[in-house]
Specification:
482 residues; binds zinc ion; 19 strands
Length: 482
């Protein structure tokens, strides 16, 4: 039987600076989906990476007194460290300076050109380097970009190449209306349709090389480089050409318009299929404030992982941060993070909830010198339907809640209550006791199996402990924090 395919991507990050915890949510969410699909046997590809061309990277390199390539090499490597610290299992970390990507962008441009969708024209407007985009009047407040009020807008007057974006207005409208799964979560589709009602304008897809030198040359015109968004979006094809179209692009809501409107128009023009779903999550704040370099409150994934690594185990530390983000992250609405809140959740759900239960069952097995009737290593746990269904709807938090306490006949809470009622410590009949312990252990293994996409290291630790020849107590997975 042919295998199902699953292709998931995250946004790729600008290399003007190293990513922070605000960028982590989408990587973790995409990782859960990728791991889940691998677990059910799908042929899976997970793409993430860095977006390295354009003014923001070029100017940051200049400020650092470095050549652009040298600078982006450094930032890209440091971004990768951040992503790795969260145990993100990407299949490829693409860089838009990779030669196969550069080649694909040139080919893509030629295809759009062949369709007749590129023309030369004069442009004059205000450009926000942080957004890497021109700003229309409605997006400017007091002369500044509404998203970046501390940055100056650049006045740009250039002769550039334009893409016939307007031509695709009704195609986009129809596609979004006819395919409710195309833009997720639901409300975001309405937002995009409302924006479309104002009408699209053709968009410049190149910059004058004199102004922005750091980019992929326009095929057939050495005086121009390809606009960074046009270049970057194509990474989803160049990163895994055999897997296109993607099942889901996961990105922040600030990138939604580009993904929901420009990217599909580009694909249609170049003759490619469209991705199935574009999922746009909200923003994460820290202690109620926007996370920004200007505010000086940037915190990186590695710092948080180190801070919460139980007994110095960074893989378990990654699970702590993953758990927090999956439970309280900006999946639909914006959300907030604080060290205090992570600590609270760590103690309540990981130390007390999961950790305690694991210790409790292991201790019971040790005291009873438990010997399973059959080799548990051959035990094949099933994935819970509720976990699959909720992941299918990108309900990470709900899927986790099922594992913790929603399931009346299987989850952590249920098992704990079961043990309270059974009082195995009072059971004298060795046979009955063995039977009970067998149930607890297979239940724990089931939980560990379902937990793997979310908290891979924790899941592996639990499996290792309960698939051992002799099940004995071990130091707590998540010692309580004072
Ligand atoms: Zn901006």
């Amino acid at each position: 039987m042919p295998k199902n395919r699953f292709y998931v991507t995250t946004a790729i990050d600008y290399t003007n600076d190293v990513i922070h915890i605000g960028h982590a949510y989408q990587k973790v969410a995409a990782d859960v989906l990728a791991r889940y699909h691998r677990l059910i046997g799908d042929e899976t590809f997970f793409l993430t990476g860095t977006d390295e061309h354009g003014s923001s990277s070029e100017q940051a390199a200049k400020r650092a007194g470095k050549e652009p390539k040298e600078f982006v090499d450094e930032i890209s490597a440091r971004d990768k460290e951040q992503i790795d610290s969260l145990n993100i299992s990407y299949d490829r970390f693409i860089r838009t300076t990779d030669s196969d990507h550069v080649k694909t962008v040139g080919e893509f441009y030629r295809r759009v050109q062949k369709t007749g969708d590129i023309y030369k024209g004069k442009y004059s407007g205000l450009y926000c380097v942080s957004c890497e985009s021109y700003k229309t009047e409605s997006e400017i407040i007091d002369g500044h970009c509404a998203i970046h009020p501390t940055k100056e807008l650049e006045k740009v007057t250039e002769e550039n190449y334009f893409f016939k974006w307007k031509k695709y207005e009704s195609f986009l409208k129809d596609h979004i209306r006819d395919n409710p799964e195309f833009i997720q979560p639901e409300g975001r589709g309405k937002e995009i349709l409302a924006f479309l009602d104002q009408g699209l304008e053709d968009i410049t897809i190149s910059r004058n090389k004199e102004k922005v030198g750091w980019g992929i040359p326009v095929p057939g015109d050495t005086g121009q480089v390809i606009y960074v968004w046009f270049d970057a979006l194509i990474n989803y094809i160049s990163g895994a050409p055999d897997f296109w179209p993607a099942d889901v692009h996961i990105l922040g809501k600030d990138n939604l318009r580009w993904h929901a409107l420009l990217w599909p128009a580009m694909l249609k023009s170049a003759g490619y299929e469209l991705p199935k779903t574009i999922y746009a999550h909200g923003f994460l704040s820290l202690d109620g404030k926007k996370i920004s370099k200007t505010l000086g409150n940037v915190i990186r994934p590695t710092e948080l992982v180190n801070k919460f690594s139980p007994n110095g185990n960074q893989k378990l530390g990654a699970d702590v941060i993953r758990y927090y983000l999956l439970k309280f992250g900006p999946q639909r609405e914006d959300s907030d993070l604080s060290i205090g809140k992570i600590k609270e959740v760590y103690n309540a759900d990981l130390a007390n909830g999961l950790g305690n239960l694991v210790s409790r069952v292991a201790k019971l097995c040790e005291n009873a010198k438990f010997e399973p009737e059959y080799d548990l290593r051959t035990y094949n746990p099933a994935l819970k339907k509720q976990v699959s269904d909720n992941l299918g709807k990108y309900n990470f938090e709900k899927a986790l809640a099922w594992i913790w306490n929603l399931d009346i006949k299987w989850g952590l809470k249920w098992l704990d209550q079961n043990i309270n009622e059974d009082k195995p410590w009072e059971i004298k009949d060795k046979k009955i006791l063995n039977l009970k312990l067998h149930l607890y252990v297979t239940n724990i293994l089931d939980i560990a199996h379902n937990l793997w996409p979310f908290l891979p290291a924790t899941s592996e630790k639990i499996k290792e402990q309960f698939l051992d020849k002799k099940i004995v107590s071990r130091p707590p997975l998540f010692p309580r924090l004072g």
